[in-house]
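Appendix B. One record, verbatim.
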Amino acid sequence: MEPLTHITDVHIHVQPWREVKPAVLAALRRGHEAQWDLLLSVMDDPARLLEILDRAGVWRAGLVNYPAPDVMGFTDATNTFAARYAQANPERLLPYGGVHPRFTRDAAGDVDRLVELGIRLVKIHPPHQLLPANAYTDGLVALGQIYRRCEERGVPVMIHTGTSIFPGARSKYGNPLELDDVAVDFPDLRIVMAHGGRPLYMAEAFFVLRRHPRVWLDVSGIPPGRLLEYFPRLAEVADRVLWGTDWPSPGVTDLRRNIDQFLALPLSDAHKKAILETNALALLPVAR
């Protein structure tokens, strides 16, 4: 296989951990005790993150941020954090942000302000924001306004699917089938389905992915060695699969190890290259 020099990890968590609730911080620390000081330094120093990416052979990384004050502790300040952090290397660091549908007073305007900040992708996290991904169908007008404005501005939306172990999270909101409504109602919106519904909703996730050509699958949070157990027909949709790790979430300790485990899967070189490199470039082109 030709060398992979443009790997994009579309899903890592570099966030203002100083905002995180104590119980959430304890969950983040579990399993990372030996590298905890390093992780804390990464949250304040982009140079440390770039060193880690270089050692892992990762070119770009998407910095997942979103407000979730009542569950995680993150406020709207997480958006400014992401934008400023990414300024250290706009080509390699992709800032993500969010608008909380239950707290915003100007949903469309808040999306516009994210774009002005330089945010590349909007994150909706149903289990942490305590709402279904299709809550606009049941009266949460602001959520529909967020989707509509992102559709109009050409900004992709990443939606968490699957469970969450953090204190206060509601995993019942992680069913990817709710993205079927979103894709139907906002047909030009590019939707990134984070985690593929793992570990409970893979069949629903695959259905949504195959039905809607503007839905992408982010495989972060799935152990790479088990990816084809979760999605045996992954090759059928390989042109819309995005590489991600969820680092440094619980259970994800090493970026390079995850890549090597993925490369060991019985997929074609073309599919591996698409998933690791070219698909992300199609969705999130290089900043100019």
